[in-house]
Design goal:
Number of helices: 6
CATH superfamily: Nucleoside phosphorylase domain
Strand content: 15-25%
Number of domains: 1
Number of strands: 11
Helix content: 10-25%
CATH topology: Rossmann fold
CATH architecture: 3-Layer(aba) Sandwich
CATH class: Alpha Beta
Bound molecules: zinc ion
Distance between the termini: 24 Å
């Protein structure tokens, strides 16, 4: 690990990946840097490396030893930290439950919609409260009708198909508070509502990225059929980890292909860039 005196050279990246340790641990040349934010510390250090000629910052969402449960992740610090080192496009791989029988374990879905059923999470930078550093952001209502970056979604789908993985194009991710899995009744309800997959971390990650004018794309790997469609005892952590372990290598290849195919920072022409046109934010984005 480098000391803080060395960070100027190594501490920059244009693309962020928030995921498990499997995504950076195989890189030969990573630089680990601790980053602080006005919202506190992110889940872990940022790990800087190069993929397909692009500078990438990896952040283990649950910490490197997977010790932070979904409802206690400091999502605001995570996204802020990434933006502060230059990141403008974020890929967010995550494990989800499938809510339809055809979305069985091993399915990769790139959602285009999101339903928030979380309860206790700080999900805005514009909450009308002064920050610890004295900055008072304005009240801002951010456009979120389409919560994911259309460019990032297209790139992710193409990357998956390039690896012969027929990813599902679109669908709704419902995000629950966790850390427990759903009851059968909840799961049947989510499925009956027409939603596609259920996860615990996709929100507020997506909205905070949008508030920081970052492009955010979710790559949702189905590890189980949620409780409503399970005939056995419901979702178990062991099963989730088994399927994730089987597929993680493949998902990593897809992610790296996607990293190489994302537009340059200055060439983004999606809605994410101009989402705050006409608003006075009352704070500087890092
Ligand atoms: Zn975008």
């Amino acid at each position: 690990m480098l000391g803080m005196t060395d960070v100027d050279v190594d501490m920059n990246a244009e693309i962020g990946v928030i995921g498990g340790s499997g995504f950076y641990s195989f890189l030969e040349d990573v630089t680990e840097v601790e980053v602080d934010t006005p919202y506190g510390s992110p889940s872990d250090s940022l790990f800087f490396g190069e993929v397909a000629g692009r500078r990438v910052a990896f952040l283990p969402r649950h910490g490197r030893s997977h010790h932070i449960p979904p409802h206690r992740i400091n999502y605001r610090a995570n996204l802020w930290a990434l933006r502060s080192v230059g990141v403008r496009q974020v890929l967010g791989p995550c494990a989800v439950g499938g809510l339809r029988p055809e979305y069985g374990p091993g399915t990769l879905l790139v959602p285009d919609q999101l339903v928030d059923r979380t309860k206790t999470r700080a999900q805005t930078y514009f909450d009308g409260e002064p920050r610890a550093d004295g900055v008072v952001p304005n009240v801002v209502h951010t456009t979120f009708a389409d919560p994911y970056c259309p460019t990032g979604r297209a790139v992710a789908l193409k990357a998956a198909r390039g690896r012969d993985w027929e990813a599902v194009d679109g669908g709704t991710m419902v995000v629950i508070e966790g850390p427990r899995f759903s009851t059968r009744a909840e799961s049947r309800w989510h499925a009956a509502a027409g939603w596609s997959v259920v996860g615990m971390t996709g929100h507020p990650e997506a909205v905070l990225a949008r508030e920081l004018e970052l492009c955010y794309t979710s790559l949702s790997l189905v590890t189980d059929l949620d409780a409503g469609t399970e005939t056995g005892e419901g979702v178990s952590h062991t099963e989730v980890m088994r399927v994730f372990g089987e597929k993680v290598g493949e998902l990593r290849k897809v992610l790296f292909d996607a990293v190489g195919a994302l537009p340059a920072t200055g060439e983004r022409d999606c809605l994410c860039v101009s989402v705050h046109e006409g608003w006075k934010l009352g704070m500087e984005l890092p």
